Amino acid sequence: MTMERESINGVPEVTAVSTLNVIDLSGSDTHRSVSSLKQACLDCGFFYVINHGISDELMKEVFDQSRKAFALPLSEKMKLLKNEKHRGYTPLFDERLDPVNQLNVAGDYKEGYYIGIEVPEDDPRAQEPYYGPNVWPDEDVLPGWRQCMEKYHQLALDVAKAVSRLIALALDLEIEYFNKQEILGEPIAILRLLHYEGRVSDPSKGIYGAGAHSDFGFITLLATDDVSGLQICKDKDAVPQKWEYVEPVKGAFVVNLGDMLERWSNCIFRSTLHRVIIGGQERYSIAYFVLPNHNCLVECLPTCRSEENPPKFPPIRCRTYLGQRYEETHANLSKYQTHADLSTQERPKT
């Protein structure tokens, strides 16, 4: 399907809209669900998930609470700045998801908020990378905010585990393969609230809501408002690259595969390039990134290798791979020397 849009430089263009498979988690026909999911994973690594069990009321509350957080004065948000465990607030330009793009020198035009699985400081796990306490706003500043986000976090993990069962079956594995203790039993699961300001994207000048990238982990669950912006590129090596919009579907998650699953599957399943292009409207989304335990060794699955198709990647620990990707795409914490520095900082010229 194609549709005409006002392009980023004011010239009308015809842009494709991707048609994605829809996976119904309440469906009784498991074989059909697995077949549909497998085809999506082979084709583009993106699909919709419906009837996932998270109510419309809770989704609305999460979006409402997200808007309230991003509406705080910058000085208040900077008090919640992300820590070394990647928990907390990330300002505009903190992230540059397409680091090889020489035009995108400023960074992505979005702000975010990371929330992981809560691990108290006195828990031994808090000494490990990517585990620890979250950065929470004071209750008197954002009443009910923490409770809302913790409830959503747990339910989203349940959805991710349900999807992982279908993925396991699609890869000819035992149904609970990915839900074993050493994989998703103690995962790195990261809820990230995202706010894209209304700055119009212009790839010719390196201005993006989010630059072209593939996700780092196992799978991502994405909920969005009704503002379009997400685009995927099914063939990253094509010249020129062809981008297709993934339209919001009310009540559905957009699910996409991450790089770790592509490595696990020996590139049989795809972690697809995607980006966010903003057309002048504010946009809010809620991403839920699911990664395995930090000690998990990601190596080619036995069902995805053969003499004709040997492993394409060496084994790698989750913590090592994730650390490399964060370093490539995120600003160093030393950039924010004081809260006042950022609140008075002039935006980079583009």
Automatic annotation (TrEMBL):
Pfam families: 2OG-FeII_Oxy, DIOX_N. One of its GO terms (molecular function) is metal ion binding. The keyword Iron applies. Residues 187-292 form the Fe2OG dioxygenase domain. The keyword Iron applies. Keywords: Iron, Metal-binding, Oxidoreductase. PROSITE patterns: FE2OG_OXY (PS51471). Belongs to the iron/ascorbate-dependent oxidoreductase family. This is 2-oxoglutarate-Fe(II) type oxidoreductase hxnY-like isoform X1. It comes from Punica granatum. The lineage of its organism: Eukaryota, Viridiplantae, Streptophyta, Embryophyta, Tracheophyta. The gene is LOC116201316.
